[in-house]
Design goal:
446 residues, 5-stranded mixed beta sheet, 37 strands, Immunoglobulin-like, Methylamine Dehydrogenase, Chain H, globular, 48% strand
């Protein structure tokens, strides 16, 4: 039976007032408990795949690193199992079939490339050929599409590594811009089977899934000091966002044309972009301005509203090192406060109480009760009518039940799952619709 240690920790709720975005930043209470009970010494990385969030950190006894995951918006955390967990869990990537990759290292120079095919419940350690897999002590970015993985570190001349066989063998990336020098990578992203790379020494590039031939989409860093900082791809709509010195730009045709929204148009009059994530149908942007950083929520690409409530003094050495998001919350690690995992939001609260209004977002809720025996309820919301497929799989990826396959109207729906006949353990339930796909975990106790 799959070993899973369920940590039943304190729930907390973000308050909502009549204002549309009346949430504030708070530290995650459950992760705070992991630190205060001497399980973790702090949080070193955070990653999100769909609505599952991963947080890792050095164990309090200094024997190595531990990885925890949450599939209920951070309210409870479960320790993930791995056959090689001495090294750090530094950067992550997920491909389209749900396979997750992780790269980390230890203080002795050992490299750990892990893979998971069960949404992060268990990990298998791979052993790359050391001759062509250089040590990256400051890993910065990792993306995957199919069996191709790109991995790079911080610094202008950091190596870019590419694997086309799921991490078994690696080559050094050399044909990005005709030279290995001064890449100055700002960000990596992927859209379907296309990779995107932002480099201030060259510009914005994209490549097919094998990452063998790169096309210069936009030139940056050489045209009047205009730099590129972030890439964000909306995997549902296909829209590609970038932040530049001028502000925010987006493309709906794979980079052939761009719409520019100048920062002052949004109400942002100073600062440099320092992180961009999705929040529902909107965006959250971190802006660095000298000694300070400010968080903005960008509503419908029209207005930027500062959302710093709860952060206290938000100076430059206290900014967020990285930000990730699920459908309803944003998670991040502040550079000078790595003992805590911060989060914002509990879904988009509004002042309207119209029960007949359509749901604003495509959502798949946590089943209830959970754990359960033998029945549980699964709720979800559709922003528009269409074909849906709701099914349950085991941790090996084998489908064990189809709960709904067919047309459903827009709105909120609930399905009961009867697990009579199944053995106890962890199961995954998935919602596929025209507006998105999401997977969550549930526990059957027998």
């Amino acid at each position: 039976m799959l070993r899973a240690t369920l940590l039943l920790l304190t729930l907390f709720f973000l308050s909502a007032t009549s204002s549309t975005y009346a949430q504030e930043w708070q530290t995650n209470a459950a992760v705070d408990t992991l630190v205060t009970t001497n399980i973790l010494s702090g949080v070193s990385s955070v990653f999100a795949s769909g609505n599952i969030v991963f947080a890792s950190g050095l164990r309090s006894d200094l024997t190595g690193y531990s990885l925890f995951y949450s599939d209920d918006d951070g309210n409870t955390w479960t320790e993930s199992t791995s056959d090689a967990d001495a090294g750090s869990y530094s950067v992550f990537a997920s491909n389209d079939d749900g396979t997750l990759y992780n790269y980390g290292f230890d203080i002795f120079g050992g490299r750990y490339l892990r893979t998971s095919t069960d949404m992060g419940l268990t990990w298998v350690n791979m052993t790359p050929d050391g001759a062509n897999f250089p040590v990256i002590f400051l890993p910065q970015h990792m993306v995957a599409s199919g069996s191709t993985i790109l991995l790079t570190g911080a610094g202008a001349n950091a190596p870019i590594l590419r694997s086309t066989d799921g991490g078994a063998s690696w080559t050094t990336f050399t044909n990005f811009s005709g030279t290995d020098a001064a890449k100055d990578l700002a960000d990596l992203a992927k859209k379907d089977n296309t990779f995107w790379v932002a480099s201030n020494e060259g510009g914005l590039y994209k490549a097919a899934s094998d990452a063998s031939q790169w096309e210069l989409v936009r030139e940056f860093g050489m045209q009047g000091g205009v730099d590129i900082f972030d890439i964000l791809v909306n995997q549902t709509t296909g829209r590609v966002y970038i932040t530049t010195t001028n502000g925010l730009e987006y493309s709906d045709d794979d980079g052939d044309s761009w719409t520019t929204i100048m920062a002052p148009t949004l109400g942002i009059n100073d600062g440099t972009p320092d992180g961009l994530v999705s929040y529902g149908d909107n965006l959250v942007l971190q802006m660095a301005n000298g000694a300070n950083s400010v968080m903005y929520l960008i509503d419908d690409l029209e207005t930027a509203t500062a959302i710093n409530d709860g952060l206290g003094a938000f100076e430059s050495n206290n900014r967020f090192l990285n930000l990730v998001s699920t459908s309803s919350r944003i998670f991040g690690i502040r550079i000078s406060q790595e003992t805590s995992l911060w989060q914002f939001g509990a879904g988009m609260s509004t002042s309207s109480v119209d029960e007949e209004a359509l749901p604003e977002f495509f959502t798949l809720d946590q089943n209830y009760p959970n754990p359960f025996n033998p029945t549980t309820n699964i709720s979800f919301s559709l922003t528009k009518a269409g074909y849906v497929n709701v099914y349950v799989s085991n941790t090996l990826g084998q489908r064990v039940a189809t709960l709904k396959e067919g047309f459903l109207p827009s709105g909120s729906h609930e399905i009961q799952f009867d697990a009579t006949g199944l053995s106890g353990g962890i199961y995954l339930y998935t919602l596929e619709a025209s507006t998105g796909k999401d997977t969550r975990l549930m526990t059957l106790i027998k």
